[in-house]
Design goal:
- The protein is of the alpha/beta class and about 1300 residues long.
- It is built from 33 helices and 47 strands.
- The chain starts with a helix and ends with a helix.
Length: about 1300
């Protein structure tokens, strides 16, 4: 046996590791034989059909394939002559799909494309075989296609076969080694990597035992650690800390690293158990052990006594060579330098690895730190499976096993101990063990490891850990730090120290204690040695017993009682808490009721309560039963007081020392009348008095609270006013629902959020302008509010202003300043009859309003419009009839809500960056300016959804304009997709919905019903394809609105000969109602058209590459509420069209009047008889439009109008059956006569047939190609555009020359 082969330890019968699949007639005597011999020389077991099959059944070879780790498929030109080869390849594909086999393809003197497309002699042989057994066609074809998808080795006439075979053997060895290591078997070096018997320190010791547990996932960890050590840098010394919770595998990882890389260094040393040895032996002894150990590693001498040299001479000798040192289980920073004896003797290029369970130990001591993660879910499951089952996991236990793995957080020791305990136990035992994990202490084996960092803590820190683990497992970090000590700043190090030792985690500003550490804490708490500082009670039975019996010897540190576990009312004496002088944390709550007002408190104190509780820090009592806290109560250490839904009328008589109080919550204490007694609460940061309906005033003593940041008075219905004061730190003031508050006094100039919704105020004070930091102002449902002061414009930081439901609000103030930060303005449900002048221009010098006629068009309008930064504008349920024309200049507006504006009759041109428009229920809306909006090309590509449901007065011309706009937008988006750099992605979704029964004519594939299947022509997916546009007509005849959400979904599939190649699902459109909005009713007499566009990203992300071309596409449309299908809606018709990028360049600005995408539409709605306004001209110039003058358009309009008038004569009828007037035609979007038939079940609707692909001949094409008015119009369109282009160029040249002449 070769050396490589002998280094492996093989147990049990030999297993075929590599299976070679080849056509013997062609490669048996050469390539295949040489490959087999090379593999065997490396000690690799090989199975190949190197002899005739001698009548053996194919199942024998299938079994050999299943037993193998790797298959090498040698595909040659005569490969398809053999059905044996193809059948074996099918089996190989099945095993690879099951992830039990790796395949290495070799294309021996045959082109990969020839195999993929089955061309030449290779394909002819395949066809001859298939004719003998047609059932084999699909599996053989899939197998050949599959093998070409994998990167393989190509051997041609010029290849060096010897070198190629060496490379294949090397790759096979690497893959086999990875497989062995992942399964915990021997590596080719003969080193067994296993998780050995755990020491007290929790780390795995090295072991050569064949029964050692395998370490899963160690390769990934080692690779990450190697990157930090950077072994490639030969002349740089690097220190790396390996940090993690005890038992996570730090020692195992460090030993594996030393084993693999130690040969690169002349001296190596693994100094283990530094934490314990430094206590027993001292630093000097460990320093000696390190140096002698390094020298021994070179001379291969085992005993220290063979050397008798001064330490200085040892350092001098070692400094001549690079060393690799591992210091294992270091617990203090000082240990590192003391054991090393300084760093100056380390030669450049040395490596030092320090393992520790404390992050702070290696901080500022190392170049890099590697935090050892827990095992991944997959590796953790495999490791647990190794111990919990004699073979593989039984299917019925899989869910339980996954829960144990989740509990462990990937901790190897926990997985091993739990697995061994559960081995050969029945399912009932598993379930009981899982249920007990969170309620009982963990096993001693695990606890002895996890408690190591705990044992090193001081008594104070031990108490802090147990407090956090029992009472504050998932709490805000600042809150916990404040409770643990009265001085937050001094306490920072205490919480951080717990995190440093991995006893707690900090995540997103919260303190977290894992299940493992929680069960560790339970085990520690149950030990009598930790009860001296007071018990932490959370079991309701034990708590009730102590409250009733009041044992004198019991010291109590904390009580957390869930009242839902107290089944009936229970009377207790007034001295229940009298002797609990050590009580720090008290909480009575009810977990069964999400709303506290529904909960019950079954603890009754008929004689009241007497207690001092001078150590209390945290006092939470749901439905506190008394009118006042006991007179003897001493709150000098109280930090957090919460008494929700209590009967309290006043906190206490007189003043008490509450100098540490930071949080006060008395919400829904409906009897509370006064806040007397808070004058000394100078550290109070938050007050919550929500729902205190008897509270009539807030006392001026609040003015002493200099750090108060939050004041909630929501629902204090008796509150009429606020006192005059200035809270210098207040950021949030909530007065929502204070229905008797008629006057608002400014009590702080530092406010950032102000809630006045539902109050009785009629006007805001003019001093509101002093709130320079105000970001949010909520005035919703202030039914008496009539206007806002002009000083509202002084709120420079304001981002959101809500005036929804202010029924008396009639006029928006004139804003004299530019509110640059305002992004959301909600005006729904007000009495405004005209859109506010959000864009009134003011003079830069005088601040007065002026007209556009005097402005310099080359100065940016972005700076001279006052509210031009608004991004979200809600105007729903208002009575105005139109929007101002200059709304188009709200360049930042992305969201516009016009729902239920029942008197709105027309819409002007909308802003270019508008992403979302909802005009549902605008039943008077008749006119929409064309173009609907300016379309910016190649700028921002994001989702765009416009909804016009129940806009039943929209005529066909307007609908055609909407469709034209979105068709151009889709084309521009497609062009942007096509111009993206290779490899980049763009996810664009465009959708629109409007009332109609007609499918737009440009959807050239259509059918009645909800499903459409279409054969695809050749070359349909060549360069230029960017997406697909989809359309559906939905009937709401039987629709009953029950859900607030409705979506029209399309599931698409592109196939090749019944084999799916591309599958995707997309949303065409729909709606979701938010808040109090009712489900949307749809007028039953009108169908609605939904149009959507999906980009290249969704269509091609599953593309298998060249050679796979779909020949058929199918689409299925349905209406859902997001979870299930809505059955009382019906998809009557559907269609699709493929979108290709334009071959000519796209202009930077495109409007419906001037667009280079083959459409000419009506300009009848432009200002001044079809001419652009100066504002439009300005915008086009500023946006980089191709037009430099209005002259060209004026000259071209006459020609275009004549053509449009001519085109109008061939327009299709609208939904009412009448013909369109020539003056309003939109010929590019109407449905042509040939595509419509009368639908008897639905008057006014058409039944469409599937049109052929573009370029296919239709009956009568030759007769009508040159006679029909539509075709004549199309023939005239290009010459007219060319004329307009020439005129534009000439006019632009004249403009530029004139300008240049003036400058001269």
């Amino acid at each position: 046996m070769s050396k490589a082969a002998s280094s492996n330890v093989v147990h049990g019968p030999p297993q075929d590791q590599v299976f070679i699949n080849f056509r013997g007639k062609e490669v048996r005597g050469n390539f295949a034989s040489h490959l087999e011999s090379a593999l065997e020389r490396e000690g690799i077991n090989v199975f190949s059909d190197n002899h005739e099959r001698m009548g053996k059944r194919l199942e024998i070879f299938y079994k050999r394939i299943e037993e193998s780790k790797i298959a090498i498929a040698v595909i040659s030109s005569l490969y398809t002559e053999s059905k044996w080869c193809l059948n074996e390849l099918v089996k190989i594909r099945e095993c690879v799909k099951k992830k039990t086999l790796e395949v290495f393809p070799v294309f021996y003197k045959v082109n990969v494309d020839t195999v993929k497309r089955r061309k030449a002699e290779f394909g002819q042989n395949f066809d001859r075989l298939v004719k003998k057994d047609l059932t084999k066609f699909k599996p053989w074809r899939k197998a050949l296609r599959f093998v070409t998808e994998i990167k393989g080795q190509v051997v041609d006439e010029n290849s060096d076969e010897v070198q190629i075979i060496k490379k294949i053997v090397k790759d096979v060895k690497i893959k086999l080694e990875e497989s062995r290591t992942d399964q915990g078997t021997m590596s080719p070096r003969g080193n067994l990597f296993g998780l050995a018997k755990e020491k007290l320190g929790g780390e795995a010791e090295s072991s050569t035992s064949l029964n050692a547990s395998p370490v899963f996932g160690i390769n990934t960890r080692q690779q990450q650690l190697e990157e930090k050590l950077d072994f490639e840098s030969k002349e740089v010394t690097r220190f790396v800390g390996v940090v993690g919770i005890p038992g996570i595998g730090k020692t195992t990882l460090a030993k594996k690293l030393l084993e693999d890389w130690g040969s690169e260094f002349l001296h190596t040393m693994f100094l283990d158990d530094v934490r314990e040895k430094s206590k027993s032996l001292g630093f000097h002894r460990l320093h000696e052990d390190l140096l002698y150990g390094l020298v021994r590693s070179k001379h291969d001498v085992q005993e220290k006594k063979d050397f008798d040299f001064p330490l200085a001479s040892l350092k001098a000798e070692l400094s001549e060579s690079k060393v690799f040192i591992v210091l294992d289980d270091v617990s203090e920073k000082s240990q590192i330098d003391m054991i090393l004896g300084g760093r100056e003797w380390l030669r450049e290029g040395s490596r030092v690895v320090i393992t520790t369970s404390r992050m702070s130990v290696v901080k500022e001591m190392v170049d890099e730190t590697y935090l050892v993660p827990g095992l991944s879910d997959e590796d953790g499951f495999r490791y647990f499976e190794k111990h919990a089952f004699s073979v593989s996991c039984e299917p019925s236990f899989k869910n339980l096993a996954e829960q144990f793995v989740d509990y462990s957080r990937g901790h190897p020791l926990v997985l091993k101990v739990l697995g061994r305990e559960l081995l050969r136990k029945d399912k009932a035992y598993w379930e009981s063990k899982l249920g007990a994990l969170a309620k009982s202490p963990i096993s001693n084996t695990i606890q002895n490891v996890l408690r190591i960092p705990y044992d090193d803590l001081s008594k104070h820190h031990k108490n802090l850990f147990l407090d956090v683990a029992f009472f504050f497992r998932f709490e805000d970090e600042y809150h916990v730090r404040s409770l643990l000590d009265s001085s937050v700043h001094e306490n920072v190090s205490e919480i951080k120290d717990l995190e440093d030792r991995f006893l707690v985690n900090m995540c997103g500003g919260r303190v977290e204690v894992t299940d493992l550490m929680y069960t560790l804490a339970m085990g520690l708490e149950s030990s009598s040695e930790y009860s001296t500082s007071g018990r932490r009670l959370f079991n309701h039975g034990e708590i009730i017993s102590i409250l009733r019996n009041k044992p004198e010897a019991t010291r109590v540190r904390g009580i957390f009682l869930d009242m839902s576990e107290v089944p009936r009312k229970m009377s207790l004496g007034n001295d229940t808490f009298k002797d609990m002088t050590d009580l720090r944390y008290l909480r009575f709550f009810n977990s069964s009721f999400p709303k506290d007002n529904e909960a019950k408190c079954n603890l009754i104190f008929p004689n009241g309560l007497k207690f001092t509780l001078q150590e209390i820090r945290y006092f939470h009592w749901l439905k506190f039963p008394l009118k006042m806290l006991p007179q003897d109560f001493n709150p000098k250490n109280l930090i957090d007081l919460k008494l929700p839904y209590s009967r309290i009328e006043q906190l206490w008589d007189g003043d008490k020392d509450i100098s540490k109080l930071m949080w006060l919550d008395l919400n829904h204490s409906s009897k509370l009348r006064t806040l007397w007694g808070l004058s000394k609460a100078r550290k109070l940061k938050s007050i919550n008095l929500e729902g205190c309906t008897e509270l009539k005033t807030v006392h001026e003593e609040l003015k002493n609270m200099e750090i108060l940041v939050f004041l909630n008075l929501r629902g204090c219905t008796s509150l009429k006013s606020l006192p005059q004061m200035n809270l210098i730190s207040l950021k949030t003031l909530i007065l929502s629902g204070c229905s008797n508050l008629e006057e608002f006094n400014l009590i702080s100039e530092t406010l950032e959020e102000l809630y006045l919704d539902g109050t009785a105020i009629k006007i805001l004070p003019s001093t509101i302008g002093k709130l320079k930091r105000l970001v949010l102002l909520i005035l919703k449902d202030c039914k008496r509010l009539m206007t806002l002061p002009d000083s509202i414009g002084d709120l420079k930081a304001l981002q959101k202003l809500v005036l929804s439901g202010c029924k008396s609000f009639t006029t928006f103030p004139k804003v004299k300043e530019d509110m640059k930060q305002l992004k959301t303005l909600l005006l729904d449900g007000t009495a405004i009859k005209e859109m506010p002048h959000l864009l009134s221009r003011f003079s830069v010098n005088q601040g007065q309003t002026s007209s556009w006629s005097h402005c310099n068009l080359r100065e940016g309008p972005h700076e001279i419009y006052r509210l031009s930064t608004v991004q979200r504008l809600c105007l729903s349920r208002n009575n105005f009839r139109s929007l101002p024309n200059n709304i188009r200049y709200l360049f930042n507006l992305k969201w516009l809500d016009l729902k239920y504006c029942e008197q709105l009759m027309s819409l002007p041109m909308l802003p270019p960056n508008l992403h979302w428009l909802d005009a549902h229920g605008c039943i008077s809306l008749e006119n929409i300016e064309s173009p609907l909006a300016l379309i910016l090309a190649e700028t921002e590509h994001s989702h765009s959804t416009f909804t016009f449901t129940n806009c039943i007065k929209l005529n066909q011309v307007v609908k055609n304009g909407i469709v034209s706009h979105f068709r151009r937008k889709i084309q521009l988006m497609s062009d942007a997709v096509a111009h993206q750099e290779k490899g980049s992605k763009i996810d664009a979704l465009i959708g629109v919905c409007y009332p109609s029964w007609q499918l737009p004519v440009w959807f050239n594939h259509r059918t009645p019903g909800s499903e459409l299947t279409q054969k695809l022509p050749r070359h349909w997916n060549e360069d230029g394809l960017t997406g697909v546009a989809l359309c559906a007509v939905v009937s709401f005849k039987d629709y009953q609105a029950q859900s607030k959400r409705l979506l029209v979904r399309c599931t698409s599939e592109f196939k090749e000969e019944d084999e799916p190649l591309i599958q995707f699902s997309c949303i065409l459109g729909g709606w979701t109602e938010h808040g109090t909005d009712r489900p949307r009713d749809i007028i039953k007499s009108s169908g609605h058209v939904f149009i959507g566009y999906n980009s290249l990203l969704d269509i091609k992300k599953q593309d298998r590459g060249a050679g796979y071309v779909a020949t058929e596409a199918s689409f299925k449309f349905e209406v859902t509420d997001g979870t299930k299908q809505i059955t009382n809606c019906e998809v009557l018709k559907c269609g699709f069209t493929l979108i290709y990028a334009a071959t000519k360049p796209v202009h930077s600005l495109c409007t419906d009047k001037n667009c280079d995408h083959g459409e000419i539409v009506s300009a009848s709605s432009t200002d001044n008889g079809g001419n652009m306004t100066s504002e439009e001209s300005y915008f086009k110039i500023q946006s980089g439009a191709t037009s430099v003058s209005v002259v060209a358009e004026e000259m071209g309009n006459e020609i275009i109008e004549k053509v449009k008038s001519f085109k109008a004569t061939s327009n299709a009828p609208d939904t009412s059956g009448g013909s369109m007037s020539p003056s309003s035609s939109q010929g590019s979007e109407v449905v042509d006569d040939g595509s419509l038939q009368t639908d008897e079940t639905n008057p006014g609707a058409e039944t469409c047939y599937c049109e052929p692909w573009e370029g296919a001949e239709k009956p009568g094409d030759h007769e009508s190609a040159h006679n029909g008015p539509r075709h004549l119009c199309e023939r005239m369109e290009k010459p007219i555009r060319l004329i307009c282009l020439v005129i534009s160029i000439c006019a632009g040249s004249v403009f530029l020359l004139t300008k240049d002449k003036k400058k001269r």
